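In response to reviewer comment 3 from the previous cycle, which asked for concrete evidence that the modeling workflow produces usable outputs, we include below a single protein chain processed end to end. The sequence was submitted unchanged, and the resulting structure tokens are shown without manual editing.
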Amino acid sequence: MLTIQFWRPLGRGAAIAGISALALGLTSELVGPASTAAIEYGDGTVGFSYPPRLTDSYTTRNQVGDSSATYYLTFDFPEAAEEPLDRVVVRLNEGYDPLFRYRLEAIEAFTDTPAGRVPLPLGELSQDRDTRELTVTFDPPAQPGMPITLALRPVRNPRFGGVYLLGATAYPVGDSVASTFMGYARLSFYERDGNRWP
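The workflow returned the following structure tokens.
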């Protein structure tokens, strides 16, 4: 099984099941009510005081049309950000397959802690095939201080080989917010005949 990496890969050995009581205790701290007032600009817009950024991304399967792939996107969400995270929008900026879509019911989010992997509760999930955007909402909003990983599961990998860029944008909680573009996940997919793309 080939893995396409964008920076250093995640520690995949962390178990999702069997989370310790300590890890469960951390969940409320990671997603509980915000303890810090949001930063507001002069016009009332809320923004992160320190920008989160994408630090790692890869796919577990890189053949075109594969139906069992997971795309992992990890971003740093430091305490200095201060504002809780309401949602992340992932947009397919480069590469195209008009039939491409995600299995919304299979999408997960988690953070890795010293006590193990802690799932983060998700709210509304939606995708817009016209804008090629996937919206992942946290419910309750995720608190800063730990890296967060999204596990995105497509129905199938794109049908065409090549390089695909997924742009990730973070939104704080608020009615009027300033979003933060966190970076691009670069995923490469190969034709089944072995024809490899750069």
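The radius of gyration is 17 Å. We consider this sufficient to address the reviewer's concern, and the full set will be provided in the supplementary archive.
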